[in-house]
Design a protein that fits this description.
protease; three-stranded antiparallel sheet; ClpXP protease specificity-enhancing factor; peptidase activity
């Protein structure tokens, strides 16, 4: 019998913690053919989605996928994200949450031992400007000359491997 992944349970737990604490839960997603998101908001193959109660309609977080409707530019869009494509869930106000390895194309495959649930270190970097309810993730990485990003603004998630 194959082992059940803890990832969807951790996603639901962090979502519940965010909402109970009054924070706005954000989902960072690696986009591929299995995801249904507005492609015009995808940057570097990733998208960051506000999954708060006020930003979504019909949110359903199953063991295999996350489904909901959200407005982008005033137009309601259906969103479908396989759990394997989620790379992080975190509170937008303070950046606290959990990061995961994206397991693209692994929906029907056996999960690799512990790799799916590994959590890389999170680093916070300020966003360049206030963000709309749903957006693509700013990089938050140092500039080419090695200087760190400017301080101030809203924290964003940067994966460090």
């Amino acid at each position: 019998m194959s082992e059940i992944s803890t990832k969807p349970y951790m996603l639901r737990a962090i979502y519940e913690w965010c909402t109970d604490s009054g924070y706005t839960p954000y989902l960072a997603v690696k986009v591929d053919r299995a995801t249904t998101v507005p492609m015009e908001y995808v940057k570097n193959g990733e998208i960051v989605l506000n999954i708060s109660f006020g930003a979504t309609s019909g949110l359903k977080m199953d063991n295999d996928a996350i489904r909901f409707h959200a407005r982008f530019g005033g137009v309601s869009r259906e969103i479908f994200v396989p759990v394997n494509n989620v790379i992080a869930i975190y509170a937008s106000e303070n950046g606290q949450g959990m990061a995961f390895e994206a397991m693209l194309g692994m929906a029907d495959a056996e999960p690799e031992e512990e790799q799916e649930d590994s959590a890389p270190t999170l680093s916070l970097a300020p966003a360049p400007s206030p963000a709309p309810a749903t957006e693509s993730a700013p990089s938050g990485t140092p500039d080419d000359d090695g200087t760190p990003p400017k301080k101030g603004g809203r924290p964003t998630l940067t994966r460090i491997k």
